[in-house]
Specification:
With 292 residues, the chain is α/β, with parallel strands linked by helices. The protein has two domains: 72 residues; 158 residues, Alpha/beta knot. It is built from eleven helices and eleven strands. A seven-stranded parallel β-sheet has the order 7-6-5-10-8-11-9, with helices on both faces. Strand 5, helix 5 and strand 6 form a beta-alpha-beta unit. Helix 5 runs parallel beside helix 6 and helix 5 packs parallel to helix 11.
Length: 292
């Protein structure tokens, strides 16, 4: 790299040439860089206030699912554009008596995090209370998904969506290391967080011990395991234990699994996104339980 670097003239804001002379405008053609604008040429940019994404649901599917959830009765502030409000009233999509505040789309976007695709609907709510572990584990049958320190809202939301699609009994997460079931997570879940029970526990290892006592068999997903997933599944009530993409399963959680298994990847690609891996595991576990 050349040691003759251009510098800015502090007084004029113009660039200095290699010999210290100001560079004037070109006589014609393309100008490689726009003129430097003085500090006073424009006022300060208006900054959008920080939004608490965990307090909002947005998008058609998440909001309509929340309105249909009896646990949301008497809860929240419902905002909708005029056409969405007409749809809700016409089709009676707010059965629990939520009053609609009509706002225009731009005003609604300003209330939400940057980039939120609201589709004309937003619902400001308190987080739902989780269910007890026993509520989704008794009687033992089917599949439960347990997430070990997954923190990305998009991934967790997609896992909820897949778990509901494949008929899972519920999702278990660690209370301290899990995102709220709102915001971008709820949007990615497309309403599944309102319909699928979620147990928030203090300690995942103890939760696995309790599930074992209730008749569940834990299968942990680990790319370095010897058994393939289809070999590990046997049709018994199954807890699919999924680790974070970076670290995988923590040691104590892995030790509390009955067996570790991998998803065979003959294509040679290193790994799958954890939400995709969960969808595959749910499919295989459902097949095993149906004996197919």
């Amino acid at each position: 790299m050349s040691s003759n670097r251009e510098r800015n003239d502090r007084k004029t804001g113009k660039k200095q040439g290699l010999r210290g002379r100001p560079e004037g405008p070109k006589s014609g053609g393309w100008t490689p860089s726009p003129p430097v604008r003085a500090a006073g040429d424009s006022g300060p940019r208006e900054r959008k206030p920080k939004v608490d994404a965990d307090g909002w649901l947005w998008g058609r599917h998440p909001v309509l699912a929340a309105l249909a959830n009896p646990a949301r009765k008497g809860m929240g502030r419902l905002l909708a554009t005029e056409d969405r409000a007409a749809e809700i009233e016409r089709d009676r999509l707010a059965p629990h008596g939520h009053r609609i505040e009509i706002v225009d789309g731009l005003a609604l976007a300003r209330m939400l995090p940057a980039g939120a695709v609201h589709q004309g609907l937003a619902f400001k709510v308190q987080p739902l209370e989780g269910v007890a572990l026993e509520d989704i584990a008794e009687p033992p049958s089917g599949v439960i998904v347990l997430l070990d320190q997954l923190t990305d809202p998009q991934n967790v939301g997609a896992i909820f969506r897949s778990a509901l699609a494949f008929g899972a009994r519920g999702v278990v997460v660690q209370d301290r290391h899990s995102p709220a079931l709102a915001g971008a997570l709820a949007k990615a879940a497309a309403g599944a967080t309102e319909r699928l029970p979620c147990a928030r526990v203090t300690n995942l290892s103890r939760a696995l011990e309790r599930l074992a006592d209730l008749g569940w068999r834990a299968v942990g997903l680990d790319g370095g395991a010897e058994l393939s997933l289809d070999q590990a599944l046997d049709g018994r009530p199954t807890v699919l234990v999924m680790g974070s993409e970076g670290d995988g399963l923590r040691r104590l959680v892995a030790e509390h699994c009955d067996v570790l298994a991998k998803i065979p990847m003959p294509g040679g690609f290193e790994s799958l996104n954890v939400s995709n891996a969960t969808a595959i595991a749910l499919y295989e576990a459902t097949r095993a339980q149906q004996g197919t």
